[in-house]
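To assess whether ligand presence alters the predicted conformation, the chain was also submitted together with flavin-adenine dinucleotide. Input:
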Amino acid sequence: MYDVIVIGAGPTGAAAAKTLADKGRTVLLIEKCELPRYKSCSGCLIKKTMGLVQQYFGEEVPELTTCSPAENRGMVLVDDKGNHLTFGQPGLNVWRSSFDNWLTERAAAAGAEVRDRTGAVSCTEADGIVTVVLQGRETYTEQARYVIDCEGVVGSFKRKLIKEKPQYITTFQTFNEGSIDLDHHYFYAYLQPELSEYDAWFNVKDDMLVLGVSVRNPARIEHFYRQFIAYMQDRHGLRIDRQVKAEKWLMPHIRPGCRVDHAVGRVLFAGEVAGFLNPMGEGISSGIESGHAAACAIAAHFDDRSAVLADYQAATRELQLYMQRQWGFVAGMADNFGEMRI
Ligand SMILES: Cc1cc2nc3c(=O)[nH]c(=O)nc-3n(C[C@H](O)[C@H](O)[C@H](O)COP(=O)(O)OP(=O)(O)OC[C@H]3O[C@@H](n4cnc5c(N)ncnc54)[C@H](O)[C@@H]3O)c2cc1C
């Protein structure tokens, strides 16, 4: 019997597990993939994220998690008329496999039990205890007083508790050898409707040029990707010598009001699976913050489930308002996001 089972060893789950272990709670962190696990991501840590890591993990993000150029100097947003706006701030460029694994190791060092290659399948709740069905080499159960579900975008565990069809944005990005006349230290996001149905982006990781588009309709990926490549060739002298790899992933489709699902019974949701995601797909900061908030709420009101929920909702209210403001700001820059106007 654990105090808490945390599902998913991304930044959200690692933050939740570390916080609970620091507070003396018994915690099992389970991860369906083998660690370190891969996550498709631009890997930009904004200033806020680095501050949260320092605050909750007690250390600076180490160099071993970064890729070249390690320094991220901010974001360039290109609005739907093609105007460039530069938002400068110090950040980092990391590989998510290394960064997330380092966070998980910090949780383990604090006392969390970490079990990888183990998926959470479903759960039932009775008499204040949650029984979770786990799938490793075999199927078995573990019990806890609470679960924090941090399983990320697809959320198949959550879908068994909230039977609502989620909406997704599909992302497609390629890693390339080549050259371009843009500063490698920035993340560039393009909001023109002819380049994507959401945003298109460019950044650099270990000197590979990363070019991506995101769409509502996956059948349109190829069309938008071709348009984007042609645009970057025309405007920025993009030259691709060799495509190293290509990958598809998903993001939650954030809707007007930026709804967040906090909990069902003793299962709390945090990070992307709860609905936390800032514009241009920045989700690591809200993942760490919501994972930490869920853990603090449980630790503070362990014997009072209603108080846990109320505390968690209150602690993440500002995060939700921040999301609404940020999405509203982007809506003012591009019609693609018009529905997010506030
Ligand atoms: C293309 C792309 C680029 C992005 N770029 C950035 C960026 O530059 N900066 C930024 O801040 N954010 C970025 N994001 C968003 C960011 O990746 C997510 O918001 C963030 O990873 C969410 O963290 P999480 O811990 O909630 O979920 P995840 O990081 O997805 O972690 C969830 C974990 O749970 C595991 N899991 C899933 N189901 C189960 C189960 N049933 N049982 C056990 N384990 C399970 C998964 O394997 C995974 O390890 C990007 C996203 C995409 C798709």
